[in-house]
Amino acid sequence: MKNNTWTIIKKEFARFFGDRQLLFTTVIMPGLLIYLVYSLMGEGIGKMVTEGRDDVVTVRVENMPEFLATEIVTDSQLVVLEQPFGQEDIDMLSDENLNIVMVRFPKDFELLTSVYDPQSGLPAPNVEIYYNSTNNASSLVYKTLTMFLDAYESGLSNRFDVNRAEDGKEAQFDMATEDSIGAMIWSKILPMLIIMMLFSGTMAIAPSAIAGEKERGTIATLLVTPMRRNELALGKIVSLSCIALLSGISSFIGIALSLPKMISGEDVELGFNYTFPDYAALFLVILASVLIMASAVSLLSALAKDVKSAGTMITPFMLVVMLAGLLPLMQSSVPESFTTFIIPFYNSIEVMTAVFSHKLDWGNVGICLASNVVYTGIAVWGLTRMFNSEKVMFGR
Questions:
Q1: Where is pLDDT greater, at 249 or 140?
Q2: 57-176 placed in CATH 1.10.10
């Protein structure tokens, strides 16, 4: 019995270690992917946390007390201006590109806090800090000032408030508009969801279209028909792309209808405030994304022996696409480098992010579309070569 058991063990080991594809996907790939994903995520999160720290921020302070002056004037990243400001100045903060924070202290603030009695029931002196939460530098300085004032307030036994609504009315200290907040939210969420829906549709049909035909033996019938192999490859990719696009459009409609209701609060409506050019650019980049997605999955399916092994080979590719979809969550702005828009999949993510951020650039859209069409052409050429190879198609 022991000899029989040992024979089975050796047989299974020989099968496993003799299959280089199975060995790679089972032993090497998991650790490699975890290392790559965690490393890139760690780098992205680090950038997200430190984003805005090196930006110079203008801090306008009205009635600045001495204790604050000694704290912030020495900070080289802050340009401190001691001057009054009005509502028109505050309204300027709605521009998310301005690195500005405005702080208003009551006149004779230090005297007021020294004589204020927390037990009196009267309103405490109120410090107003105006900022824009969609601007990383402005938001970071706001948080730093708030933490500093909270610590200072604790030392005074809570003798003043920060950003308290006056007379029961809700005050607006975050000057970010609903439009800009909505754009920020959509640009973080929707590119990832769209790319994943498109990939899910592609993955559901592509393996059976090529690897499935190899497994059933029907691929041989197609290969002996009087058609050129590049026509067969292009037909496979285009048909798969169209079907995956339909799946992606259906998913996108569901997302578009459900997310506003899920995210919007009682007083805030984060609708889709986009124009026809935005939708046109989005449709074009989705179409180009599906083309290159179907091309890549078709290549992997052609290499596989059957549908099951095709799914195994596509899994690491799926993780790469997922990682690309997560990148907008880790960055505060759309990269402007030319190379960003020629990297497969990542370029589509960045164009979608730009569209949803109201930062559409048709030049970048053109680069993305052109590069994806080129990559699709390369994939068609590669798939044609595979169809011409008996070793790939029939394992001979």
A1: 140
A2: no
